[in-house]
UniProtKB/TrEMBL annotation, chain A:
It comes from Azoarcus taiwanensis. Keywords: Membrane, Transmembrane, Transmembrane helix. The chain crosses the membrane at residues 12-36, 145-168, 206-227, 350-370, 391-413, 425-444, 487-511. This is PepSY domain-containing protein. The keyword Transmembrane applies.
From TrEMBL, chain B:
It comes from the Bacteria. Pfam families: DUF3649. This is DUF3649 domain-containing protein. The chain crosses the membrane at residues 39-60, 67-86. It comes from Azoarcus taiwanensis. Keywords: Membrane, Transmembrane, Transmembrane helix.
Length: 540, 91
């Protein structure tokens, strides 16, 4: 490898990492939270009963069918999702009016049901963990296409930063074991190397598969070259790839619908108990009613499920579709499945979360490294921070710590906003971004060294006090959830407590370090530049 | 890297690289045997690798002119080959 090549790749690594680094940090933080999406959903709706395992799929589907017969008789599509695992802890149904094949004019409304009584479960209006999870590819407040493209471009930058990072690296293995703390730039470089190297396979997988999720959005011309460019053509491509059996149009003649538990019984005979995830009924009470039974997409890392298509009137099995139809589709489904980790049990799920956090640390340490390197260079030259460096310093504070404060505020909002507030879920999200904006303003207004410390302490308090807030505002406090074995609530409270302690200990370590530097400065040599900067701003 | 060359290379990477990623993926999809939807999927999956390689090429060569030529020439060649293959019916 020539020196020129490595140098140009180092340049590319620095700038692709920096320019959209803050967007990437947002994507990684919200995406990591997404691995606990349904757990966060449940904590944010404390009125819901503790989810229990489904006793009997046939009885449960009967309950759902009864509900839909009463509440959605004329609808073109019913969708029933069984309470099978953490991915879908409650029985839920939704129905659509209008066209059964999706597209404009559909009105979807998801309702959670008590699997025993069929009563609709009511809880406070919230975006829950789903909203945080969706932010990681849609962002927020932006039209979907703008959010998707922003995240797509950032992801492409990430992929470039990862690969150029590997290229410029001389000794990957030894970096695994190298950490020299308390040495400014060197320590940040070590931290950046260690977090990246440990989690490199995960980061490559998550970044590439992130692009694959929306590959037809980012690369529409590849599909258009073979299928044509209108929406219908794109749909033909998707159906073609899935080799999905064609569904028929409604006959517009009414007919009776077979009780769905007969169909479940047949599916269970083919697949075994517990393998059924969802049921999709098109045109119920029409002569062309179709019932589609899907297996679980979380059965393994390949995100694909087999399905069975039945005639809803006669109960005859019309088509059977395997989960894996072609190598190309299976490769795509494997990438998507690894990205989402729906198959992960508790241990693997925590590994996903840790890998995601290492990704956040990799991005964060990279952003800090850029800043520390230039700050030290400026200090040596005797200059002060130039505008670009100041901007990066402020953005780092506002994002690396300010965003977590915003997310804590989102949880506080969930407990403190009145239950009957109109647009409540919208306001929860607004609170996240208002708190984040306040942190950004604070980062601009305060001296750099002070701003870090203050926001870190605030983040520590905001997370560590969440279990207390939960105890004050609900019946499901930590002691009770520990005693009753309510692991979702206990896990959430304990994790928040741990996150709070982590932020507070970083704040404490930073404060000690600043005191030590201040003391040493009296005795000898030039102090680190961030303290100089603070002093200058304070005297100004 | 001189200062005027950088904006030019950024354009070559972003637009030229995107064009090459598309035409390379379309050629791959046209050339692969088997079903069309599968071939297109392989093309889509590969396109981001082609894009990454193109951007790295653009920033590693010694002149901006070579950077542009390095993405545009293979881009046109891939596009032309893909067009020929697609005219000849299903490969």
């Amino acid at each position: 490898m020539t020196g020129h090549f490595r140098q140009s790749m180092a340049w590319l690594h620095t700038w692709t990492g920096l320019v959209l680094g803050w967007v990437l940090y947002f994507v990684f933080v919200t995406g990591t939270l997404g691995y606990f999406d349904t757990e966060i959903d449940r904590w944010m709706q404390p009125e819901l009963p503790v989810a229990t395992e489904m006793a009997d799929a046939r009885a449960t589907v009967r309950v759902a069918q009864d509900y839909l017969e009463h509440h959605a008789p004329g609808h073109a599509r019913w969708f029933i999702s069984l309470p099978t695992d953490r991915n879908s802890p409650y029985l839920s149904v939704f129905s659509q009016q209008g066209r059964a094949h999706g597209g404009p004019g559909m009105h979807a409304d998801r309702v959670l049901l008590d699997a025993e009584t069929g009563r609709a479960l009511r809880a406070r209006d919230t975006g829950g963990g789903q909203l945080l999870y969706q932010m990681h590819w849609k962002l927020h407040y932006l039209p979907e296409i703008v959010g998707q493209w922003t995240v797509g471009v950032a992801t492409m930058f990430m992929l470039l930063a990862l690969i150029t990072g590997i290229v410029v690296h001389k000794k990957i293995f030894s970096d695994f074991f190298t950490f020299r703390p308390g040495k400014g730039q060197r320590s940040w470089l070590d931290a950046h190397n260690a977090t990246s190297v440990i989690s490199l396979p995960f980061q490559l997988m998550i970044t590439y598969s992130g692009l694959v999720f929306l590959m037809t959005v980012y690369m529409p011309m590849i599909v258009s070259a073979f299928y044509g460019s209108d929406d219908a053509a794109q749909r033909v491509f998707r159906e073609d790839l899935a080799s999905r059996p064609a569904l028929v149009q409604p006959a517009r003649t009414p007919a009776s619908l077979l009780p769905l538990d007969h169909i479940i019984a047949d599916a269970q005979e083919r697949w075994g108990e517990g393998a059924i995830d969802a049921r999709d009924v098109r045109h119920p009470y029409d002569a062309h009613a179709r019932v589609i039974v899907r297996g679980s997409i979380a059965a393994g890392p390949v995100r694909a499920a087999p399905s069975l298509v039945y005639d809803g009137v006669s109960g005859e099995l019309l088509a059977e579709q395997a989960a894996r139809t072609s190598a190309a589709k299976t490769t795509r489904d494997l990438l998507l499945g690894l990205h989402e980790g729906m198959f992960a049990g508790p241990v693997v799920r925590w590994l996903y979360v840790l890998s995601g956090l290492l990704g956040c640390a990799m991005i964060g340490s990279g952003l800090i490294l850029w800043m520390v390197k230039r700050r030290q260079r400026e200090a040596k030259l005797g200059g002060s921070a130039y505008p670009g460096l100041q901007l990066v310093e402020r953005l780092n504070i506002a994002t690396l710590v300010g965003l977590p404060v915003g997310i804590a505020a989102y949880f506080w909002g969930n407990r403190l906003l009145p239950a009957e507030l109109a647009e409540r879920a919208t306001w929860e999200a607004n609170i996240l971004f208002l708190a984040w904006a306040a942190m950004a303003a604070h980062a601009v207004w305060r001296p750099v060294a002070r701003a870090w410390g203050e926001q870190l302490w605030l983040a520590g308090a905001a997370y560590a006090l969440l279990p207390m807030l939960n105890a004050l505002t609900t019946e499901r406090h930590l002691a009770r959830s520990l005693l009753t074995g309510d692991w979702v609530f206990a896990g959430f409270d304990l994790t928040m407590l741990a996150v709070g302690v982590m932020f507070a200990s970083v704040a404490y370590a930073l404060a000690r370090r600043q005191r030590r530097f201040a003391a040493r400065q009296v005795i000898d040599s030039p102090p680190p530049s961030h303290i100089v900067a603070t002093r200058a701003e304070e005297t100004a | 890297m001189n200062k005027l060359a950088i904006p030019s290379r950024i354009l070559a990477a972003a637009l030229g690289g995107y064009a090459l990623a598309n035409s390379g993926a379309i050629l791959l999809a046209a050339a692969l045997p088997g079903g069309q939807a599968e071939a297109v999927t392989w093309g889509l999956l590969a396109s981001f690798l082609i894009y990454t390689a193109a951007v790295m090429w653009v920033f590693s060569v010694r002149s901006a002119l070579r950077a542009w030529l390095g993405v545009l020439v293979p881009g046109f060649v891939c596009g032309a080959l893909a067009w020929i293959l697609m005219q000849g019916g299903t490969p």
